[in-house]
Amino acid sequence: MNKVRRFVRDGIGDQVGLHMHDASKLFDYEIRGALGGSPQMFGARLGPAEIFGLGLLVQFVTGPSSISIPVKDAKVVDEFLDELDRLLIKTRSKDNPELGWLREISEFYKVPVENGPSTRCLAIKAFGLVYRVYWARIGSGLYIVNRPFVLEDIRAAQSGGKKPEGKDIGHALVRIRPENWNEVLPGYNLGWAEKHRSGCLDNLSLLANTARGWNDTTVDAALLERVVRFYGVRPRCPDGGTYTLSADGKRCTCTIHGNELDPRQPVAPSPDSPTGKFIKGLAGLRATLTFHEEGLRAVVVIERKE
Fold first, then answer.
1. Is there a contact between 256 and 239 (Cβ–Cβ < 8 Å)?
2. DSSP character for 12?
3. d(CA 205, CA 212)
4. b vs e for 245-271, b when ≥16 Cβ sit within 10 Å of the residue's Cβ?
5. Domain spans of the chain?
6. What is the mean pLDDT of the chain?
7. DSSP characters for 281-303?
8. 210 within 8 A of 177, measured Cβ to Cβ
9. How many Å is the maximal CA-CA distance in the chain?
10. Dist CA 2 CA 23 (whole Å)
11. Is there a contact between 66 and 21 (Cβ–Cβ < 8 Å)?
12. Which H or E element spans position 124?
């Protein structure tokens, strides 16, 4: 316990960073679904905060992710990590028969690193599946990751003299760097295209219902104005498609997304759509939260390309 207290008090700083790195996604994440609704799970209803946290946890566990903690005293941190090594080895020892089940579900080992502290690895095994967690002190930071290449990238960045930016000050910081979306962007594009299709198909019933009341056969300005009066919205395809009515006026179809009986969509939003233009021009996003005595101060900065 003394080493733990010394580790927390003297070894590490008072910040924790959660990072999701560029890679193809196994599961997609829908912010609207996370913040809305209260589905039932394991006999209890989950609120927006629980759903949001669960979604982030799934993303963090399944995709390349890391936790970073600043190091104030490298010696203290190294001593704690050495003590943790001995504890993990001892718990898996045959001298502890009451903990024999740990030997069946876990493995612990070190990965030697040239000119630097070793990388530790804890492998958890269940039902034939293996989940590995790696951690290491690299320079002035302690990193916990679920993919070894993340540590390799961090070591390469530090050996190249690259330092993190420190211009953002706050109690919580969320940052998006779109220049690193080499592998995740196709997944995001597909998710945005699905939202465009869903929104577009929702418009079809508004147009068809209104058209039947006036026996309209074409989607023209007059029909759109009537839809606005009845429903309070003006139907428009997010990707720039046009709406056509069937010969009997009972069904409406989009030239890009089809209809409910024949749904279609591209793999990404149209480059000319507001979403496509926004993503193409996005250079970065920073959201900083700072707690003051008078309340919470939130600053969101959207950087656009020249």
1. yes
2. B
3. 11
4. beeebebbbbebbbbeeeeebeebbbe
5. 2-23+63-164, 165-306
6. 84
7. HEEEEEEEEEEETTEEEEEEEEE
8. no
9. 85
10. 40
11. yes
12. strand 119-126
Residue type, 304: R
Q: What is the rounded distance in angstroms from the CA atom of residue 234 to the CA atom of residue 203? A: 9
285's tokens: 């996003």
CB 119 within 8 A of CB 135: yes
- Under the banding of pLDDT at 50, 70 and 90, the label for residue 48 is low
**Tens-place pLDDT, residues 28-37:** 666 555 545 5
* Contact by Cβ (8 Å): 136, 118: yes
Beta bridge partners of 106: 124
What's the CA angle centered on 74, arms 71 and 76, to 5 degrees? 100
- Look up residue 164 and give its amino acid: P
**pTM (2 d.p.):** 0.69
pLDDT tens per residue across span 270-288: 999 999 998 888 888 888 8
Beta bridge partners of 59: none
Determine the average pLDDT of the residues in 188-206.
93
